[in-house]
Amino acid sequence: MSDESLTLLVVHAHPDDESSGTGGLLRLAAKRGHTTVVVTCTNGELGDVKDPALSLNPEENPADRARLADVRREELARASAVLDVTHLYMLGYHDSGMQGTKTNAASYAFVNADPDDVTGRLVGIIRQHRPHVVITYDDKGGYGHPDHIMSHRMTMAALEAAADGTHYPEAGVPWDVPKVYYTAWARSEMLRVFKALHFLGRKTPLRDPDFDPDSLGCPDELITTKVDIRPVLHDKWRALFTHRSQMGGSHFFRWLVRLGGRWFYRYESLRCVRSPQPIQPLESDIFSGLD
Ligand SMILES: [Zn+2]
Fold first, then answer.
1. How far does the centroid of ligand 1 lie from the alpha carbon of residue 108, in Å?
2. pLDDT value for 71
3. Which CATH number fits the domain 7-184+223-274, given the four candidates 3.40.50.300, 3.40.50.10320, 3.40.1280.10, 3.40.50.720?
């Protein structure tokens, strides 16, 4: 691959997904001098509040939801700075809540946003930045969160529309993104993490008598790409812990995650679904083949 600066665009649902799912990839790309663009669709205001120091209780006080949205947007901006993200877009849609919750049906929820509106905004961003690589979730949203599934659907629609000048002609010059990936957590690795947590006495799906390991993550055989993120693992954790409202302030928890991460989060795995050249699994660089 040439040293020419390339552009990576990631589309996520909530603040903190950029760090947990693609923090290593973003930081590595920035270190290589590439341009990175993060789009976060919602404010994540339905996330639990794990940091008591924030004194937010959205269950009791609805006004705290709006405050949590502000807190999470600030955390996202700081995490993006840690990852050296070049451009950050917060689309500002409202969190739809976990799968099967009442808020899924709310008119303000991201899942109920006008698809043309969301797609049009993404097309504008794609045409402006002309990314060489786009990463989003798979059609199951990774683990079924409605906002992740919506992010997937809107991104895939935007990729098609961005390449076709008859769609959203006001949104700029068409751009056909050469490489597209889904984030993918390998089933075998997910099982390993759950077993370790189970061993430590933590609650995991393994306790469920109907637990089906085939429902977990991405089948290993579909994973095309594994990027070694160990050189930037420290920055990934630093970015993730910037989301204090979600990660809490416990030093012990941070220590545990950092320690466990050395074994369980050495790689960020992906599934390539569009490439100018056939992928040779396991590919180790998302920018390969883009000469
Ligand atoms: Zn999320």
1. 17
2. 96
3. 3.40.50.10320
